[in-house]
Write a structure and sequence with these properties.
Chain B: One of its GO terms (molecular function) is protein serine/threonine phosphatase activity. The structure holds two protein chains of two kinds. By secondary structure, chain A is mainly α. Chain A is built from 15 helices and four strands. Chain A is globular. Chain B is an alpha/beta fold. In chain B, the strands form three sheets. A six-stranded mixed beta sheet of chain B has the order 1-5-6-10-12-11. In chain B, strands 4-3-2-13-14 form a five-stranded mixed beta sheet, with helices on one face. In chain B, α2 packs across α4. The longest helix of chain B is centred in the N-terminal third of the chain and has 15 residues. Classes of the chains: A mainly alpha, B alpha/beta. Chains A and B meet through β3, α11, α12 and α13 of A and α5 of B.
Amino acid sequence: MESNIPTKKIKSSEDLKFWFTSDAYYYLTQWIRLLSIKIKDLKNTEECKISDTVQNILNILDQLSNLIDETPPDNQPTRFGNKAYRTWTNKLLEKSEQIITTFLPEKHSDYNSELGVYFLDSFGNSRRIDYGSGHEINFVCFLFCFYKLGVVTDEDLPALILKVFAKYLQVARKLQTVYNLEPAGSHGVWGLDDFQFLPYYFGASQLIGHKTLTPSSIHDKRLLKDHSGEYLYFRAIEYIHQIKTGPFFEHSPILNGISNVATWSKVNSGLYKMYLDEVLSKYPIVQHCYFGKLLPFTDEIRKKREKKFKESRKMKKKITKKEK
Amino acid sequence: MDIDKIIEVLSKCQTPSEYEIKQLCNKAIEILIEEANVLRIVPPVTICGDIHGQFFDLVELFDLGGSPFETNYLFMGDFVDRGYYSLETFLYLLALKVKNPRRISLLRGNHECRQITKVYGFYLECVKKYGNGNVWRYCTEVFDHLSLTALIGNSIFSVHGGLSPSIKTINQISLINRKQELPHEGPMSDMLWSDPESIQNWGMSPRGAGFIFGSEVVKNFNRTNGLSLVTRAHQLCMDGFQYMFNNSLVTVWSAPNYFYRSGNIAAILEIGNNLTRQFKTFKAAPKEKRIVKVKMTIPKYFL
């Protein structure tokens, strides 16, 4: 099977409507739910099975982090973000061909370039020197591709979040702070977070059964510090404190509101609904999503479902007729 | 309608009644509908960039630039979204406009439209404060009537975003039918979405709307139209403002400490009688001047 280079497909409100019924939408939403389930009650420090594929991604992320150290911010006049970020991106692009060939085993190597598109757009936009939830989606799509091809299985999923996604966040945050990246498409005080969303969703799942930490525990600076290494949610809140000024209730009112929710389970399920509504339904974000062979902009699943539904209705009618 | 009472209420960052807002918006439309796509402004005038609902920082802006009852102001759009007080901010400026239409000039930004405000906070804010979407509807109708550009003293051109490949002369702007929801493409969209970039000509914009344009484009536009400067907003500036292309274009940004993390200062550009230019900068309002009416509400997804 030959792979397609993924392209952007959502260009109008009709496309947006189609997106909700598409196979890609189905795969992506089920994927993030599955990941959330697989890390329930697990700390970042949990011992996980780490396959060669997973280890390779971790190594690549380490490389990217080192690349930041090798590309310090410069003193060029700038509107806002540091232009050395463009240098970092160019260096990444130079290495990209070599990196991309290592993603998949030989039998799936045709798909390397498809994964490459998602991977390379996971770290921000070099023209605008910004980063946002759209880049985070790309990284999650990148991980999905491994699963779709069967190169990564259910056993690997905890490592994908607790080790790989956690490390991805480290790299993303390092880029944001070192190069002063602008939040791309942030909703300001009306959004969850300027840069990320999924660390909160996955992070809440990690805490579902926790005996002592509750959603309101995020207000305790000591607890934040003690647990930020173990839990994505706490690390995300700690990071906000590191980069924002002023009282938490003022700069992060949504997260502040969520701290009043009774259980992590409710936080987790609420964040899923919010993600679908506030991220995956918004044209300004999804207009930048890529669709290829692995996350296709087709609606085969919906068609199959409708066909099954029609067939089962026919059967029911037949049975009712017979009974009469 | 008692415009002075409405201004008084808004100046304290409080909101008038839904009925008063409807009256204010209707009156504003009567005024805006008569304005051209290119406002002709006689200097002196103080040019301001994005505000994004940062009401208390707007107060700092007026403290620095002078009372809006005595000083001429031109705001280049993006009054709403992202901040707490988009409604108070926009309505305050609108009320000042209604009170003294020749003194206050308001341009449309890319956030002054239905599609964007439904995503970036203004709609949510209206529903939160009034329980329904009526005031949002009244405001978005006003957005449709906001002018697109300004020409100050025949020499300084102001627009929210930037230039359009479809617009070579300022006269062409007059042909646009602006009284509509912001289209996804075309000259009206371009002028509110485009960004200058260190290239020579035109390029695709990573925003997904508008274009990026370079030094030759600005040089030609300024020469063709007899301009000395293009002023625009639309992009965050660490220092509040940034010149490009040999000082022939400047970005002015008026929302300090954007996102509570940017640490940026904000700026206004004072154009004097003889078209002299002076930038003034300001920081975010100090804590004691900011009121945050916080309700510990749990977002609807978690109920």
